[in-house]
Every structure is written in C-alpha cells, then in structure tokens.
Specification:
The longest helix is centred in the N-terminal third of the chain and has 36 residues. The protein contains 2 helices and 4 strands. The chain is of the alpha+beta class and 108 residues long. The protein is flat. Helix content is 38%, strand content 34%.
C-alpha cells in the first residue's frame, strides 16, 4: 500500500510540474505574440523606456483553456545620479481568446 501511495504521489508531482511548465511556456509565447501585435503602440517608448509585460487570465473557456490579457507598461530608464521616478505608464493591452487567437489590441 505504501508503494502505491508513493507512486501516486510522484505521478501527481510530475503532472503538477509539467502543467506549471506548460503554463509558463504559454505565457512567454503570448507575450511575444502580444509584443508583435502591439508594435505600433510600443514603438514610441523604445530607447528611453523599459517596457515590461504581464500576462493575466481574464476568463475560463467553455470546453478547455483560458482567455488572456497581456498588459504592457513603460518606465523611464534611469542612468544618472539623482532621483529616478518609479512611475510606470500603461502603454497597451492585448487580448487573446480561447484558441489563442488575437482578439484585440488597445493602445493608451
């Protein structure tokens, strides 16, 4: 009985790790696709700003999967002595549907 519990525990851990890894890979893929879709929105912030992306789940699909929103923010690069503003500006958001299809791009 102990062997069965051990085997089941190991299988559950492996399933959890592969699911977490797939989720991370999916987020990286979505961020790359979102960056390409929001290229025009991000173009004016290249050079003097650090652009960061966050991926959020916005809904659950009927059969399987999720809908996602990738949000881009820009913060001025600080290169000299003195105070550096931490203020981040919302630049763009990109929405993806249940099948990973691009739903929309919003520039702010």
């Amino acid at each position: 009985m102990k062997k069965i519990n051990t085997v089941l525990s190991v299988l559950c851990m492996l399933l959890f790790l592969t699911t977490a890894r797939a989720q991370s890979t999916n987020e990286n893929s979505l961020e790359g696709r979102a960056r390409g879709a929001a290229h025009e929105c991000l173009q004016q912030y290249n050079g003097d700003y650090d652009i960061s992306a966050t991926t959020d789940v916005t809904g659950i699909c009927f059969v399987q999967g999720f809908t996602y929103r990738v949000t881009f923010t820009a913060r001025p690069k600080c290169s000299g002595p003195g105070a550096c503003p931490f203020l981040a500006v919302l630049v763009a958001s990109v929405d993806f549907g249940c099948e990973g299809e691009l739903i929309g791009v919003t520039c702010y």
